[in-house]
Amino acid sequence: MKESTMEYPRPHFDRSHAWASLNGDWDFRADTERDYTRTITVPFAWETPASGIEAHWLPLAWYRRTFTVPGGWAGQRVVLQFGAVHHEATVWVNGVEVVSHRGGYTPFEADITDALKEGEQEVVVRVSAPLDKREIAHGKQRSIPRDDFDGVCFTPSSGIWQSVWLEARPATHLAALKLRPSQALNAIEVEARVSGTADSTLTLALRGTSLSVEVPVVDGVAEAVLPVAEPRLWSPEDPHLYHVDATLTSADGTDTVAAYTGLRRIEVIGEDLYLNGSRLFVRGVLDQGYWPRTGITPPDDAALRRDIELAAAAGYNLVRKHLKLEDPRFVHHADVLGMLVWAEPAATGRFSADSVAAFEEQIAPMVERDGNSPAIIIWGLYNEEWGLDWDIPGDPAKQRATAQAYDLLKALDASRPAVDNSGWTHVKTDLLDWHYYDESAASWGRTVAALLNGEQDDFPVKLGPDFVVRKKLAGHPDQPLRGLPNLNSEYGTGFTSVERGWQLRWQTQELRRHDRVAGYVYTELYDIEHEMAGLLDFERRAKDLAGVNPADVNATTTLVLDVVPVAPGRDLLSESREVSVPVRVSHHGTEPVNGHLRTAWTPVFGAAPAAFDADGPWIEAKPFLLSGAAEVRAELPAGWTSGRLHVALVSDGAVIARSALDVDTHTDPVIGDDR
């Protein structure tokens, strides 16, 4: 896209040649106040410092501002666009009600042309943000009364929290532009939806080529297939995008919209995921989309891009945007940077007919807004039975609601795998994902192995300080779920950064041990308010992970040590200074790898070594097959009673994988050691 349009709010449906931002200062008042005595900065929620208001538990408020319509828009229809307003908005222009919208995460618009007058215009927005959010889609925003999961929720973000802007278009105009890659990945399939009464013709041009076709509009729809010569496939390694310029011509005028997509195919084949015909292993991280002073609104466009870059620097190839339809510019940056995305709507809190309807109302807007994105490879729906009272197995109505959400989504987009209820109790799903947290590295490894080899179909879930239940993978006794790709889509524990770094290394290693695993999603990228589970703090600064580098843990090629670790700083207890460790290689590249295993010692929690010892045993690994074990032998340096043994796989002089374990010769039992 051109530099001048980089901040345009809707990059997948780009009418930036005729837009004007209404972000900035608006008059503001609570419903209990008579006059507009305060100023709020849009688009920041009224709870946030960035808004200038910082009002908490305010259920109803009003916004007001004036604007002028650009002079060059004469003869066009003027449309007022809202990216998202939480939760219910009613909009007036010059005293005329132009639109009312319910749903805090979905976009809406109003043609305001007939309400305009000469000169300066006034827009007023009334926003209702219920304190009781349990039956509305609110994601991770807290509720009064509280939700069952309120302990893992954050400060509410109410009011206008995405961009507001004006656009100009003819009366007969493009209403939607759906782009999808062809099955053979050599063409772009286009479906345009047209609104208006005038006869029209659509011209589609593939930018950067000479391809331009005229397409008739029949009953408001135009369809075409744009062949791509020498197609270049979109992937994380080469995120190439194809831009399509659509021009609709009618007696009402000319409307031009730009959109883009990538040529890529995501498939479920048996228990594996494939991207463009090649096996894909998902190395994901949870990203909840919160910022310290701006709530659920990014402070600026660069913040969205930076979070993706931080995830990539930590070795992740996918970001799961959790319980939130993120600003569409996040998806755009993922498309450009090559970051895979798991996208999902906001959760409700309690089960009712109204909450089911509120949840389902998000599905179609989600697919329409973001469906062109090549980065989105997984659609999520419910999460951990939130909004289903944690009781899918016990209620056929909740089973039907879960399956119905899946069916609604797949009817709109069958090209991507969908998860019906992430975490457990699946009813109808394309991926078998589970959320498993365990403070014991030993029981973690045993449970993961038992889930994957079919010895058990349930696992413990801690729902409260003293409340642990066992959750089954299937939410209906007749639902066969084996044979689908397995993903551990939430994990990570530890009360301190040292413990979290230790668990990150060892728990991720155990997931890499099993070739049946299709991927994982670590919880999480950064801290949020009271939740200190991130690899980074809330300001996106690095934390002390006790020498663990996430980029090594999440690399394409990693080492798997046949050790059951005891505790941070004491992975392996040895009665002598000599240790022997079986080492394996997990490799998810396209070609086999091989090399020598080499070692180096540093103090526990010391800096990484600058160099490694001479070549040790030779080892080789094929893609997606855990290698056999090679024995690494090492001896603590003279006078040392403990130390960190670094192990590296070196191929042609380059380190392509590394890990470490802490050896301690003080072998007294460790309190809480569950081996």
From TrEMBL:
| Glycoside hydrolase family 2 catalytic domain boundaries | 266-419
Is Transmembrane helix included in the keywords of this UniProt record?
no
Task: Tell me if Hydrolase is a UniProt keyword of this record.
Answer: yes
Q: Which residues form the Glycosyl hydrolases family 2 sugar binding domain?
A: 40-132
Instruction: Could you list this entry's UniProt keywords, alphabetically sorted.
Output: Glycosidase, Hydrolase
- List the Gene3D superfamilies hit by this protein, alphabetically: Galactose-binding domain-like, Glycosidases, Immunoglobulins
Describe the location of the Glycoside hydrolase family 2 immunoglobulin-like beta-sandwich domain by residue ranges. Answer: 212-264
Query: Under the GO molecular function aspect, what terms does this record hold?
Result: hydrolase activity
Q: Which Pfam families match?
A: Glyco_hydro_2, Glyco_hydro_2_C, Glyco_hydro_2_N
* Family in the record: Belongs to the glycosyl hydrolase 2 family.
UniProt name for this protein: Glycoside hydrolase family 2
- What is the organism of origin for this protein? Nonomuraea composti
Q: What is the lineage of its organism?
A: Bacteria, Bacillati, Actinomycetota, Actinomycetes, Streptosporangiales
